[in-house]
Amino acid sequence: MERKNMICIVCPIGCHLEVERIDEKVIVTGNQCNRGQAYGIKELTNPTRVLTSTVKVNNAHLSRLPIKTKGGVPKHKISQCIKEINSVELNAPVKLGQVVIKNIQGTGVDVIASRSI
Do the beta carbons of residue 100 and residue 66 sit within 8 Å? Predict the structure, then answer.
């Protein structure tokens, strides 16, 4: 049995959740909506986060380009993803939404530019 207390961050209510795994079943209590239940299950079984950072860009008026992942990457792969992001160097011009890294660390999530430069 695994139990975890957390605060839901999906909506402004901020429900205090108690998430419990008994065998293969995950039980969420304390949520006021279904989004809280889905959040609790995901946080216990496969927590993910959207990464934001910057990469070096050449031949532009700014030296760094803001980027973000298009979706959540697993928490246990965040440090590997940051190492890969830090190794990227681009040449201007770069368009908003352009894929900077495809399928980062085999997660199926692309890293995209957050602005044009």
Answer: no
Give 59-70 as a DSSP string: SSSSSEEEEEES
Residue 108's alpha-carbon distances to 12, 13, 72, in angstroms, are: 29, 31, 10
CA atoms of 25 and 14, how far apart (whole Å):
24
Q: What is the residue type of 80? A: Q
Q: Per-residue pLDDT tens for 73-86?
A: 999 999 999 999 99
Given pLDDT bands bounded at 50, 70 and 90, which one contains residue 23?
A: confident
Residue 91: per-residue pLDDT:
96
* Contact in structure between 31 and 5 (CB atoms under 8 Å): no
Residue bearing tokens 């990464």: 51
Taking a C-beta distance cutoff of 8 angstroms, is the pair 77, 50 a contact?
no
